[in-house]
Design a protein that fits this description.
The chain has 287 residues and is an alpha+beta fold. Helix content is 31%, strand content 18%. Strands 2-1-5-4-3-7-8-6-9 form a nine-stranded mixed β-sheet. A hairpin with a 6-residue loop joins strand 3 and strand 4.
């Protein structure tokens, strides 16, 4: 279990304050998530040694020196035949993330309070300022974190809706949260292979059509992009996936308007009008 956040003073940028995972595997999903907004990635595929889960965009009450909101990222990894208590930890975290989002679109809730209680500003600043030291302090933080999360009672949801291999739905659609947690449980226990994600840069099925060709469950976060109540929709089966892109630079990564086909067509039309106006002006038609 790896915990990432940043310190208050300038220069203490985002970093892992207990231990860092071997790779930044989540960077391959930068077209579909911005880690500063609530999101979740769960990957359990054939050919991999273990499942991987990321929860991010959990807001803190702390702000940096510029007054910007600080957030937390949790990265967890485990064997496919993981112990039941480890599966329960991840499912509890995921259920609380969804519940906090349902209560507050910024996801300020149970998880925020828990992590802020475990990570006082002074301790975070000290660990980030001395990355090669305080090994015992880092291990103690991990122990406190695991103990606190294990004590969390998972949020219970209504019966899941839909059982397609590949689907997308808004996180607030009836039965969507339960269906998502059911799929996540199957991935963690090793009974299924595939991916399950809460994505904050998608708004429709077309956005994830080439994300992954196998079993795939997607919730639309809907805080800034998309409809959180979007009804269930089956995703088509696909061939081999496209190569994943490299990580985007750090910072906000909104699904910008100019990325849509309509916007690109509008820009092209505007450029054509400007060229035409220039030709007419040079010809003396426009004085």
């Amino acid at each position: 279990m790896h915990l990432r956040t940043r310190g208050t003073p300038r220069g203490l940028d985002y970093g892992f304050i207990n231990s860092a995972p071997g790779t930044r595997w989540w960077d391959a999903y930068s077209d579909w998530i911005a880690t500063e907004r609530p999101c979740l990635l769960a990957v359990a595929e054939d050919g991999q040694e273990h499942w991987r889960v990321l929860l991010s965009g959990i807001p803190s009450a702390r702000t940096d020196s510029g007054g910007r909101l600080i957030y937390y990222t949790l990265v967890l990894e485990g064997a496919y035949d993981t112990a039941e208590e480890n599966e329960a930890v991840v499912l509890s975290l995921a259920s609380h993330l969804l519940a906090d989002l349902a209560a507050d679109e910024q996801s300020r809730g149970e998880l925020s309070g828990l992590l802020d209680g475990l990570c006082p500003a002074e301790e975070v600043d000290a660990l980030l300022a001395a990355p090669a030291e305080h090994t015992a302090d880092r291990a103690a933080l991990t122990d406190r974190l695991l103990t606190a999360i294990t004590a969390l009672e998972p949020v219970r949801y209504e019966a899941p809706a839909g059982n397609a291999d590949r689907w997308i739905a808004g996180r607030a659609a009836p039965g969507a949260a339960a269906a998502f947690l059911t799929r996540l449980s199957a991935l963690l226990s090793g009974t299924e292979r595939g991916q399950a994600h809460l994505l904050n840069l998608v708004s429709e099925a077309e956005d994830v059509v080439d994300l992954f060709p196998g079993r795939l469950a997607v919730l639309v976060e809907g805080g800034q992009v998309g409809d959180p109540a979007m009804p269930f929709e089956k995703l088509p089966a696909l061939g081999p996936p496209r190569p994943l892109v490299a990580a985007a630079p750090a910072g906000p990564h909104p699904k910008a308007w100019w990325r849509t086909p309509m916007a690109q067509a509008s820009v092209a039309a505007l450029l054509l009008l400007l060229v035409l106006a220039g030709v007419l002006w040079i010809s003396g038609v426009i004085s």
